[in-house]
Amino acid sequence: MNRNIIVFGATGKTGQLICKELERNELTYSVFVREQSISKMSSSSGKTVSGNVLNADDVKLAFDGESFSDVIIALGSKDLKGAGIRSVGTKNILDALNNAKIKPHIHAISALGVGESWSQLNWFGKLISNLLIKSTMNDHNKQEGYLKKSALPCHIIRPVGLKDGDSKGEVLVQNEGPLPSNAIQRVDVARFLVKSLLENKTGVSGICQKK
Ligand SMILES: NC(=O)c1ccc[n+]([C@@H]2O[C@H](COP(=O)([O-])OP(=O)(O)OC[C@H]3O[C@@H](n4cnc5c(N)ncnc54)[C@H](OP(=O)(O)O)[C@@H]3O)[C@@H](O)[C@H]2O)c1
Fold first, then answer.
1. Total structural domains in the chain?
2. Phi first, then psi: what are they for 154, rounded to 5°?
3. pLDDT, tens digit, for every residue of 76-122?
4. 160: closest CA among 203, 195, 128?
5. From the CB of residue 158, how many other CB atoms can be counted at a distance below 10 Å?
6. CATH number of the structural domain spanning residue 179
7. CB 3.0-4.6 Å disulfide test: which of 15, 54, 137, 175 passes with 10?
8. Domain assignment of residue 118, given as a range
9. Ligand 1, residues 8, 34, 187, 205: which to mutate, most atoms within 8 A of Cβ?
């Protein structure tokens, strides 16, 4: 199958690693990036669409005249007040795809602790999620709601805490019971996402580093 991929959040810490992984697999991809962040991109084999994901018209432009097989959503924000980047951005993407002739596969990064995976967090994860990143978790909750309602095939990836640095190897996928590790390297999330994309994986994957 010929892939034509677009990445939202391509300039982020995980997004950049996803792009590298797509390149390593010789996959063609376009990116949607904010004007002020274009310089963070090294290269992409497809087009670069500049825009704000909170602006529905900007997002529509990304899909104008081009059909994508896969849409990767690695959107995030350091703004803990929560501007709804993940949920509003995802909704704008799904709305823009309403009339798409070819229905793409969505691959989105959420977080462990969202929805029924709350019970998979240990006490420390629950504390952090409630005290420090409540708005982020709410945003991911809404984001997942939009994805689950969508008619498009979706793979929702729920990683534990993300770490920078080299790969630490295999990823454990577990959707029930507490995960054995609180951390995963961003590079291993990127590799898991691209491998799953190539396998057309759908559903939900709670992931951490395999011990
Ligand atoms: N940190 C953790 O431990 C952890 C754990 C589990 C899940 N997660 C989730 O994993 C995801 C990725 O995290 P990350 O740390 O890799 O994210 P990040 O480095 O903060 O990257 C966020 C990306 O979203 C883009 N973005 C933000 N606002 C935008 C807008 N209005 N329009 C277009 N693009 C916009 C950013 O673009 P700019 O370059 O222009 O800012 C950037 O490319 C997030 O959803 C996060 O909640 C994180």
1. 1
2. -130, 145
3. 998 877 679 999 999 999 999 998 888 999 999 999 999 999 999 98
4. 128
5. 24
6. 3.40.50.720
7. 15
8. 5-209
9. 34
Cα-based distances in Å from 65 to 46, 71, 89, 168, 211: 13, 15, 20, 40, 45
Report the pocket of ligand 1 as residue ranges, CB < 6 Å: 9-15, 34, 37, 40, 52-54, 74-78, 85-86, 109, 111, 136, 159, 161-162
Average pLDDT estimate for 31-38: 94
Residues 98, 88, 208, 203: what is their CA dihedral angle, to the nearest 10 degrees? -20
Cα of 23 from ligand 1 centre, angstroms: 20
d(CA 162, ligand 1 centre) in Å: 11
Q: Compute the distance from residue 9 Cα to the ligand 1 centre, in Å.
A: 6
Q: At what angle do helices 134-149 and 85-96 cross, to 10 degrees?
A: 20
pLDDT given at position 103: 92
> Around Cβ 63, how many Cβ atoms within 10 Å?
20
Q: What share of the chain is helix, strand, coil (3-state, %, to 5)?
A: 40, 20, 40
Q: What is the pTM of this model?
A: 0.97
Q: How far is CA 204 from CA 103, 114, 116, 152, in A?
A: 19, 11, 11, 14
